[in-house]
Amino acid sequence: MSLNILVTGGAGFVGSHTILELLNVGHRVICVDNLCNAFGAANSKLPESLKRVQDLTGKSVTFYDVDIRDKDGLREIFNKHKIDCVAHFAALKAVGESCRIPLQYYQNNITGTSVLLEVMAEANVFSFVYSSSATVYGEPQKLPLDELHPTGSCTNPYGKSKYFTEEILKDLCESDPRWSVISLRYFNPVGAHKSGRIGEDPNGEPNNLMPYISQVAVGRRETLKVFGNNYDTPDGTGVRDYIHIVDLAEGHVSAIKKLAGGELKGFVVYNLGTGQGYSVLEVVDAFSKASGRAIKYEIVDRRLGDVASSYADVTLAAKELGWKAKRGLKEMCEDTWNWQKSNPNGFAGAK
Amino acid sequence: MSLNILVTGGAGFVGSHTILELLNVGHRVICVDNLCNAFGAANSKLPESLKRVQDLTGKSVTFYDVDIRDKDGLREIFNKHKIDCVAHFAALKAVGESCRIPLQYYQNNITGTSVLLEVMAEANVFSFVYSSSATVYGEPQKLPLDELHPTGSCTNPYGKSKYFTEEILKDLCESDPRWSVISLRYFNPVGAHKSGRIGEDPNGEPNNLMPYISQVAVGRRETLKVFGNNYDTPDGTGVRDYIHIVDLAEGHVSAIKKLAGGELKGFVVYNLGTGQGYSVLEVVDAFSKASGRAIKYEIVDRRLGDVASSYADVTLAAKELGWKAKRGLKEMCEDTWNWQKSNPNGFAGAK
């Protein structure tokens, strides 16, 4: 079964890896991205990440430089292509920045999604995969986090925008039975494609642990800041459920397969994680081994809003999507390092 | 002190009554309304409600037929007028409809507000009064409801759109100290201006009790439906905190005065209610006395999402805004009836 899949935000980290897997299983991809966080599109019709996806797969991606808030722009794309399903990655995602410019976050993430959904309905397209986040669970009331855990006590505009959008999707599905929506709640995506040709390329100082570590390892940054070592965890540092980006991408392939099967109706959520938590210091250690480099770090104050531990109950996705993460921490570190060392400045060094 | 106040949604029930009071105390009003729920604008530059406000006050309102999601349209208005403060009423507000067309509710109420706030910031206007609702409290955990009661467990898209917007306003104020925002949480606005020239004019079957009763009294509808008489209340019917629309309008005048004073910073909420709850049957009885008409009613099933009792703690607004509701249930019913009997078909009968 080969589908026409519209991917929004496809130039980014999760989007580009997902497109690669979608192409590999034989789907056709139409990508929409406003390139606000992507590198290398100025002199080219394609952002650098998608050029490399084409190289790696030997297949082509149809690309539109369109903002999802641009209703007419989206309409044109739906008129040109018979879309079967939409995978929606386009969003702003930096927690700290979201506190500084909340309106832009709400406009990009909520208004953007609403406009996209309106245009989909006009075009009679009702299959939707949403990039959600474990942040919607707020402070965990119990661990592991399963999909029935309450949502909503988010402390920053980024997290709220993910939670609000899930509520909008739920209301939409209740209002109109034609919709089938899968919301995938990501835990902590890391790693890179095995080739080392695509990977995570954050702007400025990374918000997340793994890219920070790898920039220290490659010499771009001096010292890793570890935010607190007095949490109630085995070594005192925060514990998270890291998931390899290729596993995450495969989770999307499984979700789209499920939607195409037609028996899923309404709004359904799945955790995408491994079910296994690792502390900051465990990740540092694993990365150090994978890269053969010492990672200098210092303990600094906790960050506001960080929880001690977060990891997923992954039984639902296994049962209903037939999907399970296969790659462990060692492979996550090796693949991150492989990408980082051959692209020390991310896509910016591309020839 | 005379200010230039931009009023969005000023053609509606709450908006028009507030404009009248703002004009009476000497402010100038610029009104923006897309007229999606207003009568009589086709053959005129002004909707019927605002024509009558002009008649009643002897003052004029500057009116723009603009949708608040239209950024360029709003920008033009802010370029033309030196706005001191915005009172934001424009929103869709029917609970049942919000469940049928949720995206339109989210687009009007959330996207609309975000666009308005963006344009305000561009124009260096940072004083904002928001039309919120007691619905943000969800199911009351204790009564009376004070402003510290938790918010967010709303069961329908209308209520969620009010709650989400409050969160957006809170985040905005935290991100930028120039903002001063008062969110007014309305309990159940009823009644009409003493003149009987302006009042509530719902489209189709009324969602709310008082307009329903008054349409029964005037003969437009046969029988009032009372949704449940087995609640845990003195007579089994739902108890609500009804507030006279002129009191509510005066609450806005007080809020704007407070903002203009300059000492209030950030995001602040106030309940607007009387603090006194009345049951459905008490309102029926009071209306019957005020109108001299029998009100035929029948008991039907509860409505999903209705709570047994809801009434406000009103001490905060009294203390900080110097505002208190002055009009009782008798006056609410008399003024509603005065409006209804001289306008049996609302503004539609206007010459």
Automatic annotation (TrEMBL), chains A, B:
<comment type="pathway">
    <text>Carbohydrate metabolism; galactose metabolism.</text>
</comment>
<protein>
    <recommendedName>
        <fullName>UDP-glucose 4-epimerase</fullName>
        <ecNumber>5.1.3.2</ecNumber>
    </recommendedName>
</protein>
<dbReference type="GO" id="GO:0033499">
    <property type="term" value="P:galactose catabolic process via UDP-galactose, Leloir pathway"/>
</dbReference>
<keyword id="KW-0119">Carbohydrate metabolism</keyword>
<dbReference type="InterPro" id="IPR036291">
    <property type="entry name" value="NAD(P)-bd_dom_sf"/>
</dbReference>
<dbReference type="Pfam" id="PF16363">
    <property type="entry name" value="GDP_Man_Dehyd"/>
</dbReference>
<dbReference type="GO" id="GO:0005829">
    <property type="term" value="C:cytosol"/>
</dbReference>
<keyword id="KW-0413">Isomerase</keyword>
<dbReference type="InterPro" id="IPR005886">
    <property type="entry name" value="UDP_G4E"/>
</dbReference>
<dbReference type="GO" id="GO:0003974">
    <property type="term" value="F:UDP-N-acetylglucosamine 4-epimerase activity"/>
</dbReference>
<keyword id="KW-0299">Galactose metabolism</keyword>
<comment type="function">
    <text>Catalyzes two distinct but analogous reactions: the reversible epimerization of UDP-glucose to UDP-galactose and the reversible epimerization of UDP-N-acetylglucosamine to UDP-N-acetylgalactosamine. The reaction with UDP-Gal plays a critical role in the Leloir pathway of galactose catabolism in which galactose is converted to the glycolytic intermediate glucose 6-phosphate. It contributes to the catabolism of dietary galactose and enables the endogenous biosynthesis of both UDP-Gal and UDP-GalNAc when exogenous sources are limited.</text>
</comment>
<keyword id="KW-0520">NAD</keyword>
<feature type="domain" description="NAD(P)-binding">
    <location>
        <begin position="6"/>
        <end position="336"/>
    </location>
</feature>
<comment type="similarity">
    <text>Belongs to the NAD(P)-dependent epimerase/dehydratase family.</text>
</comment>
<dbReference type="GO" id="GO:0003978">
    <property type="term" value="F:UDP-glucose 4-epimerase activity"/>
</dbReference>
<comment type="subunit">
    <text>Homodimer.</text>
</comment>
<dbReference type="InterPro" id="IPR016040">
    <property type="entry name" value="NAD(P)-bd_dom"/>
</dbReference>
